[in-house]
Amino acid sequence: MLITGAxxxxxxxxxxxxxxxxxxxxxxxxxxxxxxxxxxxxKVIAIRETPENTQNIPDCLSAPGATVAPAPLPRPRRxxxxxxxxxxxx
Length: 90
What we know:
Layout: E1 2-4, H1 20-39, E2 44-46, H2 57-62
Parallel strand pairs: 1-2
């Protein structure tokens, strides 16, 4: 069994910018890799990454009046985007 994830924020070698192009390249590459593993009888569990922080956390926490208290955001429910994916059998 292989548990896998990705960190698309860095883009790819051919497209080193995190955008729809690099995300599509990463997705296609991972799907190809998973198909090869599945074809050899290896089970694959894909884990979606958590969102990237958009600001420097130490800078944010050291700002005047900053606090380490949790942000007042509602606790997310199960994402509707979670689904099973099956590779076509060879």
